[in-house]
């Protein structure tokens, strides 16, 4: 009886601890989302665009933990135009249907986080361009920028540990 009571107590503690405190993987997903939101905000603030853009698909993403709550993030993803006009508030794919007659925007971003928040120093690097206009030279420039010392942890380079989502 005492063993059963201990097992039940242990199971209840595990359930409570897992339901109250977000796991590191949950927090990392939230940080990835913050990076996507940063790029979406920058793209949608561009005066040359007529349509509102939303996140469409992750191509690749990676993270390196360098200790003391610091994580370096790299993300590569696509944004897709919607039928809503630029500046639409609280847009999502349900209220703003994706358009299939316009090119995707290809984005690569890298940034440093501390305590699950994007740091302002070094300034997050956001590079988004219409996919048809993206050149190999631009892709190379993205990689070089994100591999510079300001986004590297000093050990492994950020882009050498790229993992699929």
Automatic annotation (TrEMBL):
Protein localization: Secreted
CC per GO annotation: extracellular region
Keywords: Chemotaxis, Differentiation, Disulfide bond, Inflammatory response, Secreted, Signal
GO molecular function: signaling receptor binding
Signal sequence region: 1-19
UniProt keyword Flavoprotein, yes or no: no
Domain of life of the source: Eukaryota
A GO BP entry: inflammatory response
InterPro entries linked: Chemerin (IPR029562), Cystatin_sf (IPR046350)
Keyword rRNA processing: no
Residue stretches spanning the membrane: none
Record Gene3D superfamilies: 3.10.450.10
Protein name: Retinoic acid receptor responder protein 2
Organism: Astyanax mexicanus
């Amino acid at each position: 009886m005492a063993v059963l009571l201990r097992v039940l107590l242990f199971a209840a503690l595990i359930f409570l601890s897992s339901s109250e405190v977000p796991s590191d993987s949950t927090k990392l997903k939230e940080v990835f989302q913050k990076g996507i939101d940063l790029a979406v905000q920058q793209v949608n603030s561009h005066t040359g665009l007529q349509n509102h853009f939303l996140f469409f698909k992750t191509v690749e993403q990676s993270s390196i933990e360098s200790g003391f709550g610091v994580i370096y993030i790299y993300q590569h993803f696509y944004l897709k135009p919607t039928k809503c006009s630029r500046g639409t508030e609280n847009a999502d794919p349900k209220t703003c249907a994706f358009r299939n007659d316009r090119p995707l925007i290809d984005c690569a971003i890298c940034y440093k986080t501390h305590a699950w928040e994007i740091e302002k120093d070094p300034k997050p690097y956001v590079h988004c361009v219409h996919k048809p206009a993206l050149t190999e030279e631009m892709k190379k420039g993205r990689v070089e920028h994100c591999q510079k010392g300001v986004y590297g942890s000093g050990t492994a380079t950020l882009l050498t540990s790229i993992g699929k989502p």
